[in-house]
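Deliverable D5.2: sample structural annotation.
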Amino acid sequence: MAIEMTIRKIYSECTEKLLAAGFDEAALNAEILVAECLGLKKSEMHLNYGSPLNSSDLEKINIWLERRLRHEPLQYIVEKWPFLHLQLNVGPGVLIPRTETEYWTDLLIKSIKRFFPSEKFIFADVGTGTGAIGLSIVKQYFGSSGFLIDLSPKALNVAKTNMINNSISPEKICFTISDLLSGIKAESLDLIVSNPPYISETEIPELMPEVRDFEPQIALVGGPDGSEIIFRLINQSRVVLKSGGILAIEHSWNQQKKIVDFCIPYFKILYMGKDFEEKERFLFLEKI
């Protein structure tokens, strides 16, 4: 007699296969795959461990597991990911929002009341991708409006979907296909936020396969040494920011000093931030 396949058993088998393949956090990966595939919260999955699986659910779980074993990002497989108070659609062709980006975006949102006491401001999210940073700002500050900018039409379509799914008014946002801040009027913005491409070309072979083989390189690679796009963005920000405007930017762990040196004649350094691993990761700058 065949042994009935339950949630507990498929979760255990997925964990074992991921462990055997050398995955970190194999149990967590298996938990998310099984729960999302069944349309359950993780807590609900555990409460229903003994429930049997039908053949359709079992087939889907195994297909998802095989995709993960090929190192396809978990976020692309489940097609969604949380970011602060948002639930974001995520898929191939769009950069996956990272925990370190979520951390500094949260810090920025909490600082905005100090930067803009009226809570009314115009911003641009440059290289918006899923819209994670810009949509988080608009969701929190009803007096804000801005541009969500990307070179990729596919990314902007994902950002538009995320705007709708998170009940954000389209009147607050202008979706713009652009090379950084090209076309934005001089001294028209109060705030610029960006997680720009900052990985050097030489680092690409060393990246995790999830990043190297699946995520769009246009959203990752910032030139030969990784800082080319950041410097272009800073130069353009000098033009389009109002006096006293804020530039909040993410960068690689080894770029902060070089960026600060480049900014000093034009910007006041407000905050030099580190991520959860105590690596230098982001800057808040004020236009002088």
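Annotation notes: The mean pLDDT is 96. The two ends are 76 Å apart (CA to CA).
The annotation will be released with the project's public dataset once the embargo ends.
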